[in-house]
Task: structure prediction
Amino acid sequence: MEKTFDIIIVGGGPAGYTAALYAARAGLSTLVLEKMAVGGQMTLTGDIDNYPGFDEGVDGFTLGMKMQTGAERFGAKTEYTEVTGFDFATNIKTVHTISGDFFAKTIVLSMGANPKTLGIEKEAEFTGRGIHYCAHCDGRFYKDKTVMVIGGGNSAVADALYLSRLCKKVLIVHRRDTLRAEKIYMSALKNAENIEFLWNSTLAEIVTEKRVTGAKIRNVTGGDLREIECDGIFVSIGRKPATEILEGSLALDKSGYIIADESTKTAIDGVFAVGDIRTKTLRQIVTATADGAVAAHFAEEYLTNIK
Result:
């Protein structure tokens, strides 16, 4: 058997590298397995203004690199490889990768969740140039402007309400004639005078010049198509957690997120879930880093008890 680490962290985003920092600083042998590049979803954000300690903001790539450097300063190692599966059946747990197997006494799962996309032309090309997936991250760029929110669930309505406090007008585009969001949001929506609804509608085409300038909206009942000017489009149709390789081996909720409470403990002893991949109310960088610190604490406690 190759070296057995005290802790292996799968995913090099803010939750993963915070767990690595706390674990390595506590003297635990620590390995981070990352598929592509450090930073996770925050690398898609040009300017992060809501992470404490950066009074003028910071770009996601820089913040990710700083987190990696901070963890490696205390001895954490990083291996770039793709994880293909796990074996949690014994005290020494196995992580299968395309580079071979890695072994650890504890595992922290930090693979994150990706926003669902619309899959229409120009969407990928104009992401960050008018197409966004995080209102709290990018809403500030649209102060006193007009934006669209695509979706009708809790996340879409919460995003619309947040944007209504910044923007001149918020248009909610929903394919049905009623929202799927919980009733708790309805009174707030009624009080938001700058929110308008485009019912029975879908986004058919993104209108662009150098950036987004509008959208063509299709009525799903009659098929009519009309063009509406807007400065930005926020897609809020849900997220997909990266848990496909865990199905059957770990308890997931109905949306595919790992079931783990604020302790980050999963149903399997010595296995923890942190950041966007676990069940939680708010998915932000600061809550991800908090998860990482908590997981490292309980991993250290677990290791002490099994010695």
Summary: The chain has a mean pLDDT of 93. The helical segments are 14-25, 60-73, 135-138, 154-164, 186-191, 285-306. The longest strand covers residues 100-109.
